[in-house]
Amino acid sequence: MLILGNTHPNEPSSFLTTVLLIENLKVDKGTVYILPRANASALSHNDPQEGSPQRYTIKTPYGERWFRFGSRATNPLDQWPDPDVYIHAASGQKLSGNETRNLNRAYPGRSDGTYTEKVAFAITEMVKKNNINMTIDLHEASPEYPVINAIVAHERAMPISSQVVMNMEFEDIQIGLEPSPATLHGLSHRELGDYTNTYAVLMETANASQGRLRGRTDEALVLTGKDPMYVKAQKIGRLFVPYDENGHPIEERVGRHLTGVVQHIEVMGENEPEKEIILEGLPSYADVMQNGVGAYLKEVKEPAGK
């Protein structure tokens, strides 16, 4: 199993979920790889003219821990200039030029390509060489985006993901299921499924801080997901996810991702016992909602002498 976080570092539940996994997960059987900074370059800057915070802070039993809030795209210091039109190398698909720095439009990547294509190539090769059975790419989406609070699955992963959706809804977690479009190229759930033997899956939660209809973009919006502009948008039918004054807090979003990861592992093992992975140490969705994300983060101490 491979879990990708920070494909888009302006989607914080992705990063926090991988951090929580790294700091709590115990694997009793099988192997779990976690890349918390899939695009580390994109974590080193913000999107210009978006007014995004540089960081956000999570309260823990040991004090506060801060995490960087990044960009959807590779830092232009690492890859520049953008072409007028981005041509996906493997398919010839044409997209807007700035998508050349979007890791989730670069798969399967190229060893001699741009920075972003090289990162995609490295991840693809990692999946191949380690014979990784399943890859889950964690994301967030703006409330007005149609594919939200959903799983997007490659056709070979669809039998597993469809059962995961039922299991999550039995736990009162409403989640949609979308097939990976066969003609939309460069995305992890399409190309990793086509170019490797992995079951390729992507998961989305609702993040108001990256939406086009949002109001003030600050740390509070990142963490609470509360925005009166989106409450108004919900009332006039402009959103694809329920939205009220409670917003969609980080606890909900991390809890959804954790539950989805665990359910995919369990269903894959039930369907194919030779691919079984046994985990322990992770909180449930209810635990995260009740206790908060910070309750499951470890204490970070300054190195001696500082």
TrEMBL record:
Entry protein name: Succinylglutamate desuccinylase/aspartoacylase family protein
Which organism's genome codes for this protein?
Treponema vincentii ATCC 35580
